[in-house]
Design a protein that fits this description.
Blueprint: H1 9-12, E1 15-17, E2 24-26, E3 28-31, H2 42-54, E4 59-61, H3 72-83, E5 93-98, H4 113-127, E6 132-137, H5 146-158, E7 162-168, H6 172-185, E8 189-193, H7 202-205, H8 208-215, E9 218-222, H9 257-272, H10 277-285, E10 293-296, H11 301-308, H12 318-327, H13 337-341
Parallel strand pairs: 3-4, 3-10, 4-5, 5-6, 6-7, 7-8, 8-9, 9-10
Antiparallel strand pairs: 1-2
The chain binds NADP nicotinamide-adenine-dinucleotide phosphate (NAP).
NADP nicotinamide-adenine-dinucleotide phosphate is lined by residues 31-35, 61, 138, 168-169, 193, 222-228, 231, 233, 242-243, 278, 295-299, 303, 306-307, 336.
């Protein structure tokens, strides 16, 4: 049946300016890292994307390696674009990235111009797109001159493969350098994509959040729910079918007893605010300045609806923030620390 998007979709979402750019992004964006590979039925992927768009989520985030197997998420999204969103391309912000291992040999990962440009071409082919809206360097490469990686992003934009450039998991110092190089080249850095949530606060410690504010670069916080830990899901153990039960990227050892003790307290605070814990976790990453949008993942449409509902209450009192700080203690869950901690 032909998909007709909800007529009231833009009334349901809040749109926030991305740094000092001309574009606004939805407060909640959808990522296709998990649940868009060959291990998930196509109908589920379609339902998740339709539900997102129906709730005003206009930004879909991909990368070359999302699957399994790598590339499968872009293939699936390309098929959904063709079947459902073909008349809505100009209402969507679609991103992809290159940086992690994608193909064999010396040109299949990291930050060379050779890898970034050819990977971008492959992503466009998989999605059936003429261009992506944002193309990212997925991780900092300590062995490639930053000028080369940023030069590749500049070329990707100038050649029409992408409208905007972004970086992911670069620390504050490297971000300053990258942003300056891109500025000199005449292709401003639109956005930074760091991991950030109540159990992973490196962007505060590192000064990245303040740096992005100062530089006028927008940001999209990935894993705002700590891969599902910041929901009620794990309060009574590890349920069958959950991400932690699948041996992918959320390992049972990450869900420690002290984390669960704090998450139970955070859940009580969310309830006192009339929100689910997922909604409060999203509102929390969006508080203050520095973060434009929260980049969630979902294994079912109901999760998208719950998360999009975060926009119903994005405000915090100072007492609430202080109480959250008591329990929002860092856990050993930042799988992307190598990129932001590496210096050359
Ligand atoms: N730049 C990078 O290096 C990088 C790295 C990682 C991710 N990302 C991006 O960030 C996106 C989001 O990452 P993520 O999926 O880890 O984010 P997340 O939002 O922290 O976790 C998503 C998971 O939480 C659970 N969930 C979501 N909403 C829920 C709700 N309302 N109630 C209960 N459970 C809920 C689901 O787990 P179950 O599957 O257990 O149901 C879902 O798969 C990725 O898709 C990708 O686009 C980028």
């Amino acid at each position: 049946m032909t998909y007709v998007p909800a007529a009231d979709r833009y009334e349901k979402m809040v749109y926030r300016r991305c740094g000092k750019s001309g574009v606004k992004l939805p407060a909640v964006s959808l990522g296709l890292w998990h649940n868009f590979g060959h291990d998930t039925p196509h109908d589920t992927k379609v339902d998740i994307c339709r539900t997102a768009f129906d709730h005003g989520i206009t930004h879909f985030d991909l990368a070359n390696n999302y699957g399994p197997p790598a590339g499968a998420a872009e293939h699936a999204f390309g098929s959904i674009l063709a079947s459902d969103f073909k008349n809505h391309r100009d209402e969507l912000m679609i991103s992809s990235k290159a940086g992690y291992e994608m193909w064999d040999g010396p040109y299949g990962e990291w930050g060379s111009r050779k890898y970034l440009v050819s990977s971008c071409d492959q992503s466009l082919k998989r999605m059936g797109l003429d261009y992506v809206d944002i193309f990212y360097s997925h991780r900092f490469d300590p062995d490639t001159p930053l000028e080369e990686t940023m030069g590749a992003l500049d070329y990707i934009v100038r050649s029409g493969r992408a409208l905007y450039a972004g970086i992911s998991s670069y620390n504050a110092e490297r971000t300053r350098e990258a942003v300056a190089i891109l500025k000199d080249l005449g292709t401003p850095c639109l956005i930074h994509q760091p991991s950030y949530n109540m159990l992973n606060r490196w962007v505060e410690r590192d000064g990245l959040k303040d740096t992005l504010n100062e530089l006028g670069v927008g940001s999209i916080a990935f894993t705002p729910l700590a891969q599902g830990m910041l929901t009620k899901k794990y309060l009574g153990g590890i349920p069958e079918g959950s991400r932690a039960s699948q041996g992918k990227s959320l390992f049972p050892s990450m869900i420690s007893d002290h984390a669960i003790k704090n998450i139970k307290k955070l859940n009580e605070i969310a309830e006192s605010r009339g929100q689910t814990l997922a909604q409060m976790a999203i509102a929390w990453v969006l508080r203050g300045g520095g973060i434009t949008t929260a980049l969630i993942g979902a294994s079912k449409p109901s999760q998208v609806i719950d998360c999009a509902g975060a926009v119903g209450n994005l405000a915090f009192t100072s007492d609430e923030l202080a109480l959250i700080d008591t329990y929002a203690n860092e856990e050993e869950i930042n799988l992307w620390a190598t990129s932001s901690e590496t210096t050359n």
